[in-house]
Amino acid sequence: MAERSQERTLGEQRSIGDLLSQLANETTSLVRQEVQLAKVELGQKAAKVGKEIGLVSAGGAVAYAGFLAVIAAVILLLAEHMAPWVAALLVGAVLIGIGFFLTQQHLRALTTIDPTPRATIETLKQDKEWAKEQLR
Q1: Segment 46-91, tens digit of pLDDT
Q2: How many structural domains compose the chain?
Q3: Is residue 2 in some structural domain?
Q4: H or E element in which residue 119 lies
Q5: 70 contact partners, CB below 8 Å, separation of at least 6
Q6: Could you point out which of 16, 40, 97, 116 has its C-alpha 20 to 30 Å from the C-alpha of 4?
């Protein structure tokens, strides 16, 4: 009966090859999950950068419209020497101010975006420690 118990214990124990195979499978799965996490994280950051670039472009377009209004004011000033140029100059100055404000605000926002996938790096460090523990 003691021999059966010992045989059962040996049969229930897994070979080193089985354990290494399981470790390889789990490591592969872990790497796939980390790659997926990196894709998601970088996708989110790229979307934010795209939004800010779009808003910078909008600010540039508003500033350009202001520039065109200032040109129209100069033309009106030279052509008629009348009050309509004052209105065009005022509108142009306001539009340039708005465009400058928008452009500066969103350029600053772009500089605060950290493109480094920090969560992925942290989990990779944890995975490295986990793999070391599995090999002990």
Answers
A1: 888 888 899 999 999 999 899 888 878 877 876 776 667 777 777 7
A2: 1
A3: no
A4: helix 118-135
A5: 88, 89, 92, 93, 96
A6: 16
